[in-house]
Amino acid sequence: MAKAAGCRVGTTTNGMLLEADKLTELARSGVDIIAFSLAGCTETNDVFRKGTRLAQVLETIRQLTMVKEKEKSTRPEIHIAYLLLRSGLEEIEQLPVMLAGLGISQVVISTLDFVPLPTLECEALIPASQDEYSRLRAQLDRLAAIGKQFGLDIHSQIVAPQDAIDEMCLSANGERDFAAFLPMTRPACTENIQNAVFVSASGEVSPCVFTNLPVKLSEAVAARMGWPYQPMIFGNIRSRSLEAIWQSQAYRAFRHSHHAGSLKGPCQACLKTKVIS
User: Fold this and answer.
1) Residue 172 phi, psi (nearest 5)
2) Residue 28: what are its φ and ψ, rounded to 5°?
């Protein structure tokens, strides 16, 4: 339905159930992007992403690339959705070598912007100062440069602390440049919610994956905010058309308020509105 409407379609997977027949179906399906989730370059990936094996995921990616060549298909593009945890800062340096030659189009590195349990808060890589932000930014920029040498397009999105934003908005003479400051502090969601939707496996339609996570509401907290998590669902494609849901009064009102900077529900504490690429 989405392809017929002219949309680009993608999905994310841990790669553990993609056997040969499913890979062939993918190459023939018209799906534009498939992103494989990783959270480490060693066995730590298997620890944090329970039920997965890094070696098997990499082999599945290799097999998908071969299937695409056999089917003479450029789709789906293969992306990596890499979750950078604080404990994984050293091993991420291995990423370019590990992914080289697998046919991967893009790597997007993000941090633990939603903390599902208080025990994982220590893994949320949220710089507390300008210096910490600058060091992390420099490390990820070096990684991107190395990635280019291996034919990898590596992007990273990290949250900037307020003093880092302030530093970026100072004019040449040291005065605060409010013209630069205001747009950077205005909420600008990295999830492209004005032009995209997230559809869950059960058919529920939400603005993004962060607004419909399968977590226990009593335990989930937004990173370092301590706000109870509440999902945001505007309808289900099993009972209503996607177009009708998208054009509904409630969904249109949400998009308008978000664009105006008035954040609702889980968006209020979401760090995706505080990312500087």
Assistant:
1) -60, -30
2) -100, -10
The alpha helices in 30-86, defined as continuous H runs, are 44-48, 54-71
Read off the tokens for 168.
Answer: 């970026």
User: 226 to each of 87, 115, 160, 269, how far by Cα in Å?
Assistant: 22, 10, 19, 9
Q: C-alpha distances in angstroms, 145 versus 96, 129, 135? A: 10, 24, 15
Confirm if 26 and 12 have CB atoms less than 8 A apart: no
Query: Would you put residue 173 in left (φ > 0), alpha (ψ -120 to 50) or beta?
Result: alpha
The answer to whether 206 and 212 have CB atoms below 8 angstroms apart is yes
Which residues are CB-neighbours of 206 under 8 A, at least 6 positions away?
A: 197, 198, 200, 212, 231, 232, 233, 234
The rounded average pLDDT for each run of 10 residues, N- to C-terminus, in the chain (277 residues) is 87 94 93 96 94 96 96 95 95 96 95 81 86 91 96 89 57 48 51 91 93 73 62 95 95 92 82 72
> Alpha carbon of 173 to those of 164, 167, 169, 170: distances in Å?
17, 12, 11, 8
Convert the pLDDT of each residue in 196-229 to its tens digit: 999 998 999 999 988 998 876 656 665 445 567 7
Residue partners of 224: CB distance under 8 A and separation at least 6: 115, 121, 124, 126
Give 5's contacts (C-beta < 8 A, 6+ positions apart): 243
Q: What is the dihedral of CA 169, 172, 174, 177, to 10 degrees?
A: -40
Give helix 20-29 / helix 54-71 axis angle, nearest 10°: 50
Distance (Å, whole) CA 197 – CA 124: 26
